[in-house]
């Protein structure tokens, strides 16, 4: 509903969105924001679960959990790869599944921190070398006993095809955590997340950490490009955050092939769109995060050279808009 009003309102679209991007928090409504404009490969929800029990059981369990630090399954360093058993598989959409892997011990946590990822390794019988791929789990880092991966199947993608062929009980090799961007509460006043497809999973990890910490007041703007509406992963979770924190979180969904009912437009993530919805480059203490397929990096932020070299902005859209290399992080 808002999207239609935004195009017909008395104030220009840029004025309405820019005000959100630059003004401090001052309360607000539960309005949802949607905007269409992209041609980015689509595809990353986290999982809530509750165990039954009376109040005494819950209090005792909580006390025990808080009195003893959880042991990490993945410790990095020289640990190497460890084998984890696939516990369950959930179909998310036409080409994406969620895989739950059991940690070696039921009371262990994964060992990941924000922001970090894991490596998976698989060597098929006809493969000369194993394939290794990074993923960002979508469950909370403090949850015990398992980790969840949200994986889109790509044609001729050896790891994604292998994962999609797996059944509960089979094993997969894991290593981590792989450090990414070191986050601390209120490290930035406002962050912008530009994602395509399953590139949304590290964005979700970061967003979840921010809004689960009552002391963290960071504002977050997400621009998320996909092919179809069905490809928008974690949409329910992002909408819940948008309703709960309307003055601190906004998500702009952009589609290549929108349905007839889609309120926005379609096309690429454009310079004009980002200029309209992102915090201005001259704003104090902001950061722009980018993650998605190669075409997205090339157009938006310039390509990442290596895990240790972020590369230049190379005249991409963010540089054209006035953002500096130091203001941009490429997952």
Features:
23% strand; disordered N terminus; six-stranded antiparallel β-sheet; five-stranded parallel β-sheet; 331 residues; single chain; Rossmann fold; Elongation Factor Tu (Ef-tu), domain 3; alpha/beta
Give your account of this protein's structure.
- The protein is α/β, with parallel strands linked by helices and 331 residues long.
- The protein folds into 2 domains: 2-43 and 181-330, Nucleotide-binding domain of ferredoxin-NADP reductase (FNR) module (Rossmann fold, 3-Layer(aba) Sandwich), CATH 3.40.50.80; 71-178, Beta Barrel (Elongation Factor Tu (Ef-tu), domain 3).
- The chain is built from 9 helices and 11 strands.
- It has helices spanning 2-8, 13-22, 55-67, 158-165, 200-211, 235-244, 271-277, 294-300, 317-320; strands at 82-91, 96-102, 116-122, 131-135, 146-152, 171-179, 190-196, 219-226, 249-255, 286-291, 328-330.
- The strands form 2 sheets. The chain has a 6-stranded antiparallel sheet, covered by helices on one side. A 5-stranded parallel sheet has the order 9-8-7-10-11, sandwiched between helices.
- It is globular.
- The chain starts with a helix and ends with a strand.
- Its main location: mitochondrion.
- Belongs to the flavoprotein pyridine nucleotide cytochrome reductase family.
- It is a single-pass membrane protein.
- FAD binds at residues 133-135, 150, 152, 159-160, 201.
């Amino acid at each position: 509903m808002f999207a239609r009003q935004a195009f017909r309102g008395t104030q220009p679209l840029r004025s309405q969105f820019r005000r959100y991007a630059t003004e401090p928090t001052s309360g607000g409504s539960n309005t949802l924001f949607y905007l269409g404009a992209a041609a980015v490969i689509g595809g990353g929800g986290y999982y809530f679960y509750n165990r039954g029990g009376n109040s005494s059981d819950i209090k005792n369990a909580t006390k025990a959990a808080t009195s003893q630090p959880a042991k990490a399954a993945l410790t990095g360093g020289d640990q190497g790869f460890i084998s984890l058993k696939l516990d369950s598989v959930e179909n998310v959409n036409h080409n994406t599944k969620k895989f739950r892997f059991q940690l070696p011990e039921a009371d262990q946590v994964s060992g990941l921190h924000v922001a970090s990822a894991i490596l998976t390794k698989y060597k098929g019988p006809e493969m000369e070398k194993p394939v290794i791929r990074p993923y960002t789990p979508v469950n909370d880092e403090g949850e015990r006993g398992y980790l969840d991966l949200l994986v889109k199947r790509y044609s001729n993608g050896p790891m994604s095809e292998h994962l999609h062929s797996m059944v509960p009980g089979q094993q997969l090799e894991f290593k981590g955590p792989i450090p990414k961007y070191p986050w601390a509460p209120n490290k930035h006043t406002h962050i912008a997340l530009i994602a395509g497809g399953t590139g949304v999973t590290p964005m979700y990890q970061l967003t979840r950490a921010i809004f689960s910490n009552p002391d963290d007041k960071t504002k977050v703007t997400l621009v998320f490009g996909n092919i179809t509406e069905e490809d928008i992963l974690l949409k329910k979770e992002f909408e819940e955050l948008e309703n709960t924190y309307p003055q601190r979180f906004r998500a702009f969904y952009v589609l290549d092939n929108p349905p007839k009912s889609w309120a926005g437009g379609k096309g690429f993530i454009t310079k004009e769109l980002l200029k309209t919805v992102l915090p201005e480059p001259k704003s104090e203490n902001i950061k722009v995060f980018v993650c998605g397929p190669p075409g997205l990096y090339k157009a938006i932020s310039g390509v990442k050279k290596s895990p240790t070299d972020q590369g230049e902005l190379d005249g991409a859209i963010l540089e054209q808009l006035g953002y500096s290399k130091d203001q941009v992080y490429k997952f």
